[in-house]
Automatic annotation (TrEMBL):
Metallo-beta-lactamase domain sequence ranges: 27-210
Pfam family, one: Lactamase_B
PANTHER family: METALLO-BETA-LACTAMASE DOMAIN-CONTAINING, METALLO-BETA-LACTAMASE DOMAIN-CONTAINING PROTEIN
Name the record gives this protein: Beta-lactamase
Domain of life: Archaea
Organism of origin: Methanococcoides methylutens
Phylogenetic classification of the source organism: Archaea, Methanobacteriati, Methanobacteriota, Stenosarchaea group, Methanomicrobia
Amino acid sequence: MQVTEHVHAIKIPFSLTTESGIVVERFVYSYIICGKNVCLVDCGVASSEDVIFDYMKKTGRDPQDISLIVQTHSHADHIGSTPAIKELTGCEVAAHGDAVGWIEHPDIQLRERPIPNFNTLTGGPVKVDRVLEDGDVFDLGEGMSLQVIHTPGHSKGSISLLLSPDNVLFSGDAIPLVGDIPIYDDVTEVLSSLRKLRDISDMKVLLSSWDDPIEGEGTYKAIDEGIEYVKKVHEAVQKFSSVSWEKVLEEIGLEGIPVNPLVVRTFEAHLKVNEDIS
């Protein structure tokens, strides 16, 4: 779908099968920024290049126009088709320095962050051509620029991107989604990153990887709700972790959701925080 004059959103569905055989339906967004050339923000799971290329052709753009992929972070559902797209277009790949290791060596990512179906989600290793830091700016031509905002917490190398002059924020997975499984590694960093995003002035559109596009004042509301959700999770973990992880899930409104490695990783992150997070 076209979100703004320059930005298109592609919703890419995929599924995960848990160890108990339960199939979980998920989706992730890839975003296209159209200027003189094309910049992709994330690339979805493996084989998503077919979906991305088909969409581009329908909107009158040649996939060979892709000159740059910016990864918001290194997780498999965001980098899956990056190797194929880079090979087919010759584009550059950019990511934060803390994300490079897992992008270039997905076998290390699997060992350090095992998840179901990892090998079907990722398309293999890919070289990162440009290592990013907080505050870096891409000149996209035609008066557009893309500013890098380091927003760790979901992962060390997570970044958000602010497109000017459209005032569009690409937040990756930095903003926890109320009612969905909370997935992050560092509670303190998540909250710090959310507050950093909350301070952005005159945000027009919020484009998350795991939520539909949000416009206007809803952009700030989504961030505020993310902050409150992290606090709610923290309270539930402190109160019920000695009972069971299932009880924690029930307390945050996710009764019946299977306890998977990512849920455990998040809850254990809360147990590492002793201070008041309010």
